């Protein structure tokens, strides 16, 4: 998978490198609290949960009820799951594997 050239630049590389240097959940909470507004962070959290629920076959009504996401947000995430860069698919699979390994 190649990187979208419209997204790639030195400043974005710096941000992603910074994220890769986070070592634990506490680091993540501290960094994201500083770099994002609460609303921005909640939007990211919501989109990931929408992606998880879509990948597990939930219907829009159930997703709206659980996440509060708009149908437009759900549609956008679904489009990314079906036609995007596979970022959601990669991380959802890794999250599943991490959960299995905890058991």
For this entry, give a set of tags.
103 residues, mainly alpha, Trp Operon Repressor, Chain A, 6 helices, 75% helix, 0% strand, globular
CATH top level of the domain at 37-102 is Mainly Alpha
Biggest pleated-sheet summary: none
Named CATH architecture of the domain at 37-102: Orthogonal Bundle
Mean pLDDT value? 95
Distance between the termini: 32 Å
Kindly report the CATH topology of the domain at 37-102.
Answer: Trp Operon Repressor, Chain A
Counting H and I runs of at least 4 residues, what is the number of helices?
6
Residue share in helix: over 70%
Instruction: Using the alpha-carbon principal axes, give the shape.
Output: globular
* Number of extended strands: 0
- β-strand percent reads under 5%
Provide the low-confidence segments as ranges. none
Task: Walk me through what this model shows.
By secondary structure, the chain is mostly helical. The protein has a domain at 37-102: TrpR-like (Trp Operon Repressor, Chain A, Orthogonal Bundle). It has helices spanning 10-20, 25-35, 38-55, 60-67, 71-83, 87-102.
Strand and helix layout:
Layout: H1 10-20, H2 25-35, H3 38-55, H4 60-67, H5 71-83, H6 87-102
Helix pairs in contact: 3-5
Question: Can you give me a brief rundown of this structure?
Answer:
The protein has 103 residues and is mainly alpha-helical. 75% of the residues lie in helices and 0% in strands. The longest helix is centred in the middle third of the chain and has 18 residues, at 38-55.
